[in-house]
Write a structure and sequence with these properties.
Helix content: 25-40%
Largest sheet: 8 strands, mixed
Number of helices: 2
Strand content: 25-35%
Mean pLDDT: 80
Structural class: alpha+beta
Number of strands: 8
Length: about 160
Amino acid sequence: MILILMSTALFTENIFAQQVNSKYKRELRKFMKFIRDSEFKQYDTLKIYPFLSNKNLFIVSLFGTGVYGLSNEEKAILIKEIETDTAKYYINKHLMKNVQFVADNQKDGWRLSKPIFLRSYLLCAFSFQTPYDPDYGAQWTYLYKKENGKWSKLLLMGKIVGY
């Protein structure tokens, strides 16, 4: 009896994980299409690394509460994702239109973070960094919101500009 309950619990948990994973992938595609069409619309071809990674990205100021201010629980989730999720999530060229992948050892690609979705995919923290240049470098972290199925930029959470 205990074995049946344990296997049922594991099976249910596995199905839930698959549903969350497929939901994340679906929302990731929608969000990255929005990012390409908004943040990078000025580039005919966008040079990016072939992966999304949070490592060394996400310079953020966590402030406020309320409708769009993050709750303490959401702040904890965001900080945990930023600090502990350093794995690379490899992508294909179909995730965004008109992209060119650059090799890891090249310095001329945009670095993009993994989107961190909050509030059942209604808010998203996302960070990106300019291609490396010894004289100039910049990184931005924004919070985006989804209303009526459409993404928009909500507020700047952090920015580093170096000259």
